[in-house]
Each structure stands twice: as C-alpha cells, then as structure tokens.
Target: L-ribulose-5-phosphate 4-epimerase
Amino acid sequence: MTVTWSPAMAEAIEKARVEVCELHSELIKWGLVVWTAGNVSQRVRGIDGADDVLVIKPSGVTYDSLTPASMVVCDLEGNLIVGAHSPSSDTAAHAYVYRHMDEVGGVVHTHSTYATAFAAVGKPIPCHLTMMGDEFGGEIPVGPFALIGDDSIGQGIVETLKDSRSPAVLMQNHGPFTIGKDAKAAVKAAAMTEEVARTMFVALQLGDPIAIPQEKIDSLYARYQNVYGQH
Amino acid sequence: MTVTWSPAMAEAIEKARVEVCELHSELIKWGLVVWTAGNVSQRVRGIDGADDVLVIKPSGVTYDSLTPASMVVCDLEGNLIVGAHSPSSDTAAHAYVYRHMDEVGGVVHTHSTYATAFAAVGKPIPCHLTMMGDEFGGEIPVGPFALIGDDSIGQGIVETLKDSRSPAVLMQNHGPFTIGKDAKAAVKAAAMTEEVARTMFVALQLGDPIAIPQEKIDSLYARYQNVYGQH
Amino acid sequence: MTVTWSPAMAEAIEKARVEVCELHSELIKWGLVVWTAGNVSQRVRGIDGADDVLVIKPSGVTYDSLTPASMVVCDLEGNLIVGAHSPSSDTAAHAYVYRHMDEVGGVVHTHSTYATAFAAVGKPIPCHLTMMGDEFGGEIPVGPFALIGDDSIGQGIVETLKDSRSPAVLMQNHGPFTIGKDAKAAVKAAAMTEEVARTMFVALQLGDPIAIPQEKIDSLYARYQNVYGQH
Amino acid sequence: MTVTWSPAMAEAIEKARVEVCELHSELIKWGLVVWTAGNVSQRVRGIDGADDVLVIKPSGVTYDSLTPASMVVCDLEGNLIVGAHSPSSDTAAHAYVYRHMDEVGGVVHTHSTYATAFAAVGKPIPCHLTMMGDEFGGEIPVGPFALIGDDSIGQGIVETLKDSRSPAVLMQNHGPFTIGKDAKAAVKAAAMTEEVARTMFVALQLGDPIAIPQEKIDSLYARYQNVYGQH
Model:
C-alpha cells in the first residue's frame, strides 16, 4: 500500500507512536498484563486530505522490547501501512471500533485478572462504588462471546458500548476492551476497570454490597464527566 | 484572594509542600492508589498572625508528575490561595476535618481495594489483630453515604471519628479517610487500614476470627499510643 | 566426567547459559517464585558428534546471585558436566522430560501460588478463557503425586503431557511444570499458567464459569499455534 | 551498661549489623511487611570471653532509613548495649528465644497478610504441599494469645516450637515468628511461611486439599534438611 502524508500528518503519526509506546508501560505498571497479552491503540485523525489511521502495538513483541519505531500504523480496515512487524492480532477489533464510533480516539484490550474473571462467568461488574459512578456511570456490561478472525469482536464491543455510559465492556470468556477520547483515557479506563473488578470481587465475598440509588449514580457521573471531560 | 505571610509562615508552607509531595509516593509504594485516585493533605498552623492553611494534591495530576511546586495551598474553607492547578476535588472534605478537629494535622483519602470493599458492604473492619489494637484501638468504623459537592463527606468523617479511637473511617460505598497528627501519620494509618482490611478479609474467608477481649485491646492501644504518640 | 566439545557446540552451550540465566529473572518479574523455589532449563542439541546437554540453574543459589557462569551443564541423565555448584535438585525431572520428549527444548518448574493451589486440591484448571484456548488448547491437567529422588516426577510429567495439548501440568500437591520448544516458551507457559490459575480461581469464587464449546476451543488453539508456532 | 569486646567480637558484631540491615530489605522485597511492622535479629555468639549478644532493628524507623549503624545491639535479656535508637519493641520476645533455644541464631517477626489471617482464626496452616514438607516438616502450628510487655510472647514461641519441626509459629491474633540457624534462614522461613499460607488459603477456597501421607512428609523433610542443613 502506498500512502503519502503531509509533514503535519506524518508528525501527528510520529507523536502518536511515542504516546502509544509509552502507554504500554502503564499496562505493566498497573498489573494489567502478563507477557504480551494486551494492546493499546490510538486514532490519528486525517489532516491535509489524509484518511484517519491507527497506531497499535506490533504482534508478539514483549513489552521490554517496544520502541516508538516498532509501533505499527494501519488504516481503519486494519491493513498495515507502516511497520516492520505485523500489527497486533487484535487490530481488527480496534479498527472496527474506530470505524463505527467516531468519538473514540483510543482503544485498549487486556486480559486483566479480575475483570477477565467477571467475563468468564458472564456477570457485569455491579456499581456499588462512588468511583464507578464517577468513571463508568453504572455497571460495566458484558459483551457477547466472539471469536477472533472477523468483525465479531468489534461488533460485540460497539453494540454493547454504543448505548452505555461505560467506557469498558467485558467480552464474555475473553476480557475487557476499553475506549476513550484518546489512548491515555482508554488506558485509564482499563486500569480503573481492573481496580473496580478487584474491589467488587472482594466486596461480593464479604457479603451483600449496598445499593447506590440511581439518581446518586447519575449525579456522580454528571459531575465527574463535567470536571474531567467526556471519555 | 490576597494573603501576605511572614518569612517563617512562608517557609513552613514550603516545607509542607515538600512533605506532602513526597508522601504521595508512599500511596503508590504501598499499593493504595490506582492512577490519580488518592490524596494527602497537611495543615500548616498559622504563625505571625496568619490563619491556618492546608497543602494538598492538585486535581487530576498523575503521581509521576507531582512536584512540591505543584502542591496547592488553600485556606480552611478550601479556597485556593496558591497553585497553578485546582485543588483536589476532595479538598472540601479535608478542609472540613481541619476546621472541626483541631488536633488533626494530616488527612489522607484513598480508594484502597480491601478497605473500599468493606465500605461497599457497609461493614466495619472487626478487630481481631493485635496490630489493630495497637493502631486503631478497636474496629475501623463505617461512615454514612455522602455525595461530593458540599460538606456531607466532611461531616460524615468528623461525626464518625470524633468519638472513636480509630484514625480511619470507611465512608460507605466510597472508601477510607484517615487522620493523624501530621500527614505522615495519616499516610501510615491509610497503609495500615488497607493491610488490616486485607488480612481480615482473608481471615473471614478462612473461618471465624477469634475475639480479643476488650481489656486486652485497651491495653494494646494504651501502650502503643504511649510509645508512638497520639495520632 | 570428561567431555570434549567442538567450538560450535561450546558456543551453543555458552549462549544457552546466558539465556537460561536471564530467563530466571522473568520468574521473579511475573511473581512466580519466592526465594529460590523455581528453575529453568534448556536443551542444547548436540552438534559435531556431541550428545545433547541441558543447562539448568544451580541448587540453592538466590536469584540475585545468578550469573551465566553459575548455570550448570548436565548430560541428559542429569549428571553434572560443567559447573561450580550442584545442579538444581529438580534436574532429574527436567532430564527425564528431555530424554522422552524429543520436541521439548525447555522446561520450567515453579511453585507459583494459584497453580500450586489447584495442584493441592488435585483439580485441573478448567478452560473458560479464550487465552487458555489459545495457549493451552483446553484445561491444564493434574499429574500424579510423586516424590523427588528418582524418575517418578519425570514420568508423571511425560505421561500427563504426551497426549495433551497443554504445555503445563500441575503435579499433585507439588506445583506446575511447563515445557516449550525452548526455555523462553516454557517460561511463557509458566507465566500464563499462573495467570489463568489466578483468573479461574477468581471466576470460580464469583459463580459458574460459562462453558466454551469444544469446537471454539479447537479453533482458538489451531489459529494461535499456527500464528505463534508450536510449543 | 559498660561492655568491652575484643577486636574479633567487635568485628563479628559489625558483620551482623550489616547482615541484619540488608535482610530487612528482603522483608520488603517479598511483601512481608507494611510500613515498619516487622523485624529481624541475629545472635552473635560470644568470643574471647564475651557473652552472646543480639543485633536487631531499631524501633519505629522506616525501612528506607535503616543503615548498619542504626542496628542496635542488646544483651540476651534485651537490654540496650549499643545504639542511638531504642531496640524494636519485640526485642524481649527475640531475646527470650535466644536464651531458651541455643541452636537458634536468627529470629524474624512479621505481620505478613495470609499467615496473620491464619493466626486470627487460630488455625494451623495444614501441610498439603511438598514445599511445606521440605521446609516445615508438617503443619505450621499456632501459638497462644500473648500480650507484649513481658515474657509471654517469647514463652509462647518457645513452647510451641521446641517440640516441632516447623521453624515458624503463628502467634494467635498476632502473626508469625520464625527461627533459623542464622537471620538469613529465619528470613527465608518467614518468606516461605507467607507463601504457603497464601497457597493454602487459595487451595482451601477451591475445595478439599488432598492429604499427603505422613511417611511421605517425613521423607521430604529428611531429604531437604539433609541437603540444605538444619534450620
């Protein structure tokens, strides 16, 4: 595929490669991934006539070896444009989300332990924490079981999230995908998803969590999103 | 707001900014916070005619980016006096505690996992550990459900702690707040709160914890507070 | 024992000592071992007429003190050929695997917490996660109880794994052994074993994990092994 | 107290101060302590006519601030001989163990999470792991409830351990104490105590751990102690 970019578009892509590379270290820092099992992408909006592209982790490369130059650039169909490695095998799912949710600028996928455990039993993470009201505006929903290889995962993510306040979905038997206005926001959502999954797991073992009235959740969410910006 | 401070007061405030900044790294070190979800403040007692002020974390800044200069200074109503960022959105709660508990010199708030799980089910952390007798003098109590935005959280903290030995309160569905004679003591209480929450969670899963007679708890508490000073 | 090697064989052995030494730090990094309780080995296939040898951790040396030069070289009966220390006390089990499974190039043993807990109750780790389908092709099986000191452990590993897709076996009351095409692949399997053990533990506490149909597991496994190579 | 030591005794004490200081960092490394809640001591056997002394952590000093010079030296009654700080408040218990168990050269006390949870419910950690057979020779027993301030804790430790193979005792409602031929061995026992407590906790949640026949435990213990030396 031959693509030409203006200097401004090329610079925006290079900036995204640096950011996406650095954000992978946050997945390690917050304990969200083991070995190579997680990936971050960011949309670069087209300028000077270019189409949008996405920057994502290369496939099968360990986190210690990641550099900005090793981040791959794909079009929004998931086709490789620039990169010495193949894109992450989850690229099709990321690309589908960018094609169908224009407001999304970043996507993250992990198999973080506690969130993935909720996904294995197919239960949403219930909202009994003010920090969940703030960040997720309610429970974190479960998406359908879907196999890798076509658009099934992407469709499951989009169908679950398009009518939800939550920036996170637990794909059944698989693990969480999170979205945000940029990659950093999606990484934050991934870190918070695991934290609330862990906290709610412990709470559910301790007894019956106390309900927070819906209007209080609405109030928390409205205030937080107003202060910190939409995800 | 225009405030003038004597050199001695200004120096005391700068010293507190250094200390409060450094103490945020302890929250990370002991695993008490994810992303930006925790804050430490310290009271600086007014000298040379100045009113007391509080030094607290700026809002929405990641822990890696914190510097002494980024710590903000507020009056005890929570109004910003000095700082390039807004104060933490929990400042009103900290300020309320300083106004109503004159012996308190430091306040810490986290969403640490196990303590927050007890808060989600509205159960106090029961005192079956000698280290709890030492540090907390009994169970760690639960405070009321309260929304951010007015003095409700501060009132709930003060009403729960004013007649308790415990330097920690679990605000229902929210998380722990801790107090101390200075910020370091409040951070220690936050670390110990999470540790005893985690230990008691495991104990409650293993079976029925053995009661410690009240007079033994009293003895542990009296000795420890005498040795290490009142919180 | 006197052995002579060609320069090429000697170089291959030195390369393996460097790799095996470095891979022990991955056991620490992913939280798989406490103190000295884990070991990694790699087969070096004989060239220029030499027999295969294995490179393994020395016995009772802490991880901080390991150097490539401290890695010991043994024949495939487990006899020491080169090394200032005794080989790991688990060497006989590693050697047995290499003698009986020619495709295996790396073996790892740990007592990682969650996998060892499944071993203590003698339950396989059930496959309710797409990442297990990918990496293990089904459940992680339990091997027999066997004492150290003869070939019992090695036999138990080989009998359990020879007809299984799984590169990991949980030896009853003992802990996991993993295999791979080289030591790095076996370390990856060890890290993934602990991760799926932890995730499935949490899932089993939360409720009934949802089954993944066998043909979906087959599909996941076929695709992943094709992309990333056989273990 | 005025004590004079030969150069050889003085050198042995300085060596112990370095070792005991460094071993405290192992408590942090293996996650055994929060804040200042753990301590390591080592006996220095008297030479050139001197009495035995013990080297122990100073009281209330954070782990980051520990230096060899800050380690305090006490006689075996627990009286301070050399040191700028008070000895750990647990010194009386350490000293009692050294006075009554001549083979013991190191003592460690922690409140490590899972071991302390077993102590809170007063249940021994049952031996369903080969690594427990190796290191502990059976279950880890529970000692009596005892308050700090006199010899009760020391007596409870000695009475529980003197007829046990285990180098660890869980003091009820309090936490583990471990012993060894030197401080390093006692620290290893403390790390292994927490690890087997955590593993057995998970196993007990998963189901009924499988029994290991007593003669197999005896065999594991005999072999391991022969290879690695008596604790």
About this structure: The mean pLDDT of chain C is 95. The two ends of chain C are 33 Å apart (CA to CA). The CA atoms of residues 124 and 141 of chain C lie 5 Å apart.
